[in-house]
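anyone else get weird line breaks when pasting these?? whatever heres mine. first is seq + tokens for prot A
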Amino acid sequence: MSDWKKQFESEHSLLLKGLKNIGLDVNEEQQDLLMRYLAMFVKWNKAYNLSAIRDPKAMVTLHLLDSLVVAPHFKGSHVLDVGTGGGLPGIPLAILFPQTRFTLLDSAGKKIRFLFQVINELGLKNVEVQNVRVEAFEPPVKFDVIISRAFASVQDFVSCSGHLLTEGGAFWAMKGQKPVDELSEIQKHYIVANFTPLVVPGLDAERCLIQLQPLNSER
């Protein structure tokens, strides 16, 4: 029996209900990985302050489901999660898409130490982490999807990480309300390829996914 089953049984039920509402078919192994990740997050959060959210049930909604709500729209083979923090949305997405390579980037060393532990304990072969500022990151291979969740403004997101996007790639900005002012700031250089309203089960707040591409790129 996995360590989480006694302590987080109700959180597991909440996760399953949310995944069903999103329309995701998640196998038992992936469910176990998601719950083990949650258990680690709860434990490490007490010492490492990974998140201001302390209640495990709230973490299911505001961390796991809020990350996985983009999964029905997901595509990409080499993904960068900028400002990943405690691994959101990168870790939940990597669990659901084991054939996709994920790089999780954050400048906070304590969060990177947590992520190393997550990767090792969960055996996530498709994930690597980088402890560096995005402006200074120079990987050997660029990314076809660069995603962020609540990372600064759209302008800062694309300007800081633009050098990491491969030709034909796209930025995925996960936001709350549609950031009309932010988008108007970048319209000379980028186009909104897709705008998708999102509904996070159990969350009474607006969410959206904005997919952006450089004006000279088509996909």
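and prot B, same format (seq, then tokens)
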Amino acid sequence: QLVEALIQKGHTEIAVNNVLMNISSGKERLEGVRMAMQAYGLHLREEWVSRGGFTSDDARQWVKQIFAGNGLKPTAVFCANNVMTEGTLLALEELNLRIPEDVSVVSFGELPMHQLIQPRIESVVQDPFRIGQLAGELVLMRLKGEKEDFCHYELPLKLKHGNSIRSLS
């Protein structure tokens, strides 16, 4: 949803500030970005994909590196979670780059106190209460011996519109 929102506003040069690739969310979110871009005939530049880190400072350093120099730069950054978004915002502030005028930013996960951040970051959010509820139900079922099989749940994401994407078209 987020990558499609970027593409629909004309962004083709998208960077991915990802989480660690040895955890499922890092792999799955990167695959989602790739699939969305491929659906529109676009290619994800590997040099614009962070390969790890799980701290705001990791994200901050990576964004500063991507926007350093005089070469081609992304017009948008997809952040794989709210911690990566925090680091991205810090780096852009340090680089004096404005959102969305200079670079668009989207986030998988909402920032704490998001309503105080301007511009509001376009994001998708999960339902942590429902995730915890399902996990608790599974644990109880296993403790009672009622469930031993692997379970797979897909919960819907909610798109939270913001004003962090500039239209290039």
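btw re prot B: Residues 20 and 98 are 27 Å apart (CA to CA). The chain has a mean pLDDT of 88.
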